[in-house]
């Protein structure tokens, strides 16, 4: 059954890629938390809570809780490569508890996102550099209008 062998190989590749993408997301989350907790970098009462075993972390600022949720999916319908997906949700309690999606981005195994650096053709990278903090702060700021 050649198709079964192809599926097996495809699953092996996807599992390996998902693990690598998950590692990048975890680095992103840990770096954001570390930056937020460093008074010289972010002294504006943002807090972060990691729930990485469940694939997300949250930030809280100005009465708003933003969740950054990780998944992976095929890059396109004709591709066998996975990309990481981060979807951003704001938590609303009234009139009923719910999570409202308001943004997100994709990234590859090297941490390069689909978001361009302002005034550049390069993309933001979410692995331990200024881009990491920029991505998180952008979505936290964006939540202020929701």
How does the SSE layout of this entry go?
Blueprint: H1 2-37, E1 47-51, E2 56-61, E3 64-74, E4 82-92, E5 98-107, E6 112-116, E7 123-125, H2 130-143
Antiparallel strand pairs: 1-2, 2-3, 3-4, 4-5, 6-7
Describe this structure in words.
The protein has 146 residues and is an alpha+beta fold. The protein has two helices and seven strands; from the N terminus they run αβββββββα. The protein has a five-stranded antiparallel β-sheet. Strand 6 (112-116) and strand 7 form a beta hairpin. The longest helix has 36 residues, at 2-37. The termini are far apart. The model has no long low-confidence stretch (mean pLDDT 89).
Strand content: 25-35%
Instruction: Write out the strand line-up for the largest beta sheet, numbering strands in chain order.
Output: 1-2-3-4-5
Order of helices and strands: HEEEEEEEH
What's the helical proportion of residues?
Answer: 25-40%
Counted beta strands: 7
Which segments are poorly predicted (pLDDT under 50) over 5 or more consecutive residues? Answer: none
Supply the helix-strand structural class: alpha+beta
Biggest beta sheet attributes = 5 strands, antiparallel
